[in-house]
Amino acid sequence: MFADLADAAWTRREGLKALTDALGAENIRWVGGAIRDSLLGADVSDVDCATVLLPDDVMERCRHAGIRTVPTGIEHGTVTAILKGGPVEITTLRRDVATDGRRATVAFAEKWEEDAARRDFTINALYAHPETLEISDYFGGMDDLAARRVRFIGDARERIREDHLRILRYFRFQARFGAELDREAEEACAELAPTLKGLSRERIAAELAALLSLPDPYATVARMRQLGVLQVVLPEASPQQVELLGQVVAAERQQGFAPEPMRRMAALLPPMVEVAETVSARLRLSRAQRGHLVAIAAREPGDCDNPQALAYSEGSAVAIDRLLLQGADASPLRHWDIPQFPLKGGEIVARGVLAGPQVARTLRKVEQCWIDEGFPSRTRVLELLDRELSGQGDPA
Fold first, then answer.
1. Percentage of the chain lying above the pLDDT 90 cut
2. Interatomic CA distance for residues 126 and 143, integer angstroms
3. Which residues are CB-contacts of 338 (< 8 A; sequence separation ≥ 6)?
4. Residues of the chain predicted below pLDDT 50
5. Are 362 and 391 in contact (CB under 8 A)?
6. What element of type H or E holds 91?
7. H/E element holding 359?
8. Could you give the angle at the alpha carbon of 63 between the alpha carbons of 58 and 65, nearest 5°?
9. Cβ(50)–Cβ(29) under 8 Å?
10. What gap in Å lies between CA 68 and CA 97, rounded to an integer?
11. Rounded distance, CA 395 to CA 328, Å?
12. How far is residue 378's CA from residue 66's CA, in Å, rounded to a whole number?
């Protein structure tokens, strides 16, 4: 049973009525994810708009209405209207003229159905009138949505040849919405999986991250490997690593942790720093993503002996990920604030130790004792320092 589109909060966002009045209700339709997600009762963040108007006309009409616009994708017919309730992307109806699997040459169209025909999946080709909210469904998207079926518009192979990234998008949407598998889609994805090698690494990385950010991508990732798709983009992911992903997803749910894509990416890779480095370079991950993935890959069994010590040395995020990947309980770290070591080198110098290597060695020894004792108060730290300086060696 679908939710009522009229109940969706985004339909009452400030600025949408002004935009409708400026462009004309018969000239625009809300389209895509906002319609799909609203019908499923899910939250909506982005609102997109399709229009029969050309971009220059859109900007001119908005200017007259006092609505600021930004030509965010003007070469593809997209203008963004800056509204108080949030930005809205307005794209002129399009049809594909030529495609090479990576990018498309488009021409402006005049019919809603032409625009719908160039979209990827039937559930993404739903259009809603801005005033009546009546839905136009040209390719059976409503039936597919009801069946939780992700289906390509028209011939699946043709849609994939237009944009090879649609293979990964299919599995991402399957993980998010799908229940009933579409045989034609799966066969097409398996057959054309090698074409993914022609895509930019950044696009592949972004899709993988989006898939791994979903609540439970395990079954879909396992299916990708079974079909030979995962091996093309992440050949390091063995069946054992895929199973580890499933275990990590279950542990996250049990211990109350939100999905984290680099943690799940690490589950799909052997726990080897050099592998993490290679994959990070191949996918051109950001510096932060690369550092995180490499830090997780350096996990070892001893991490589980003292989770707080691990968090102190590696940071909470890395510690939590290492523990979850090794089947340990990371929940004690969820609300634990990493303490600051309450001793400075100057205090040691003030005790008569000459500045230099001896101060650093003393500081490290006392800090290690402080960690081993579970981060006691400053009073105890000063006692540890006194014992160290008295020549008693490592304090008990």
1. 89
2. 11
3. 311, 312, 315, 316
4. 395-396
5. no
6. strand 88-92
7. helix 357-372
8. 100
9. yes
10. 31
11. 30
12. 61
3-class secondary structure, 152: strand
User: Sign of the CA dihedral 345, 350, 355, 358?
Assistant: negative
pLDDT for the residue 100: 54
Model confidence pLDDT, tens digit, residues 95-112: 876 565 556 667 899 999
Q: CA-CA distance, 5 to 304, in Å (whole number)?
A: 49
Q: What is the pLDDT of residues 242-279, one digit of tens each?
A: 999 999 999 999 999 999 999 999 999 999 999 999 99
Return the CA Rg of the chain.
Answer: 28
- 375 contacts 308 by C-beta, under 8 angstroms: yes
Q: How many CB atoms are closer than 10 A to CB 101? A: 17
Q: Do 23 and 53 touch, CB atoms closer than 8 A?
A: yes
Residue at token pair 């996990």: 299
- For 340, the token pair is 């600051």
Long-range (24+ apart) CB contacts under 8 A made by 352-361 are 353/389
- Distances from the Cα of 236 to the Cα of 66, 70, 241, 257, angstroms: 54, 42, 9, 25
What is the secondary structure of 44-79 as a DSSP string?
Answer: ---EEEEESS-HHHHHHHHHHTT-EEEEEEGGGTEE
- Per-state percent for the chain, helix, strand, coil, to nearest 5: 55, 10, 35
Residues 6+ apart with CB under 8 A from 309: 371, 372
CA angle 286, 203, 251 (to 5 degrees): 65
Q: 92: part of which helix (H) or strand (E)?
A: strand 88-92
* In the block, residue with structure tokens 């540890």: 384
